């Protein structure tokens, strides 16, 4: 019966290099996930900006300057018109 029991090793008996390796993998994966989320949000923001610029050009073309100015303020809130 003793043969079937799994041996568990405490953290104090685990080699330092294996603990360091596992933690390094955890940190690397978390950084990779964080950067991926950041890049996806930037891509989404750029896509939204492109759509707004297209809509602003259309509003200028049809002569709706108030709507175009509102879109421009949304695109560049720091620029005074």
From TrEMBL:
Higher taxonomy: Eukaryota, Viridiplantae, Streptophyta, Embryophyta, Tracheophyta
Alphabetical keyword list: Membrane, Pathogenesis-related protein, Plant defense, Transmembrane, Transmembrane helix
Pfam families per the UniProt record, alphabetical: Mlo
Subcellular location: Membrane
Listed transmembrane segments: 12-33
InterPro entries (UniProt xref): Mlo
Similarity comment: family membership: Belongs to the MLO family.
Name of the protein: Uncharacterized protein
Membrane topology: Multi-pass membrane protein
């Amino acid at each position: 019966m003793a043969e079937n029991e799994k041996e568990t090793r405490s953290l104090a008996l685990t080699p330092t290099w294996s603990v360091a390796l596992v933690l390094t993998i955890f940190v690397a994966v978390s950084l990779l996930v964080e950067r991926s989320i950041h890049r996806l949000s930037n891509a989404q923001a750029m896509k939204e900006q492109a759509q707004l610029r297209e809509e602003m050009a259309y509003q200028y073309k049809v002569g709706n300057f108030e709507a175009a100015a509102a879109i421009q303020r949304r695109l560049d809130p720091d620029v005074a018109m």
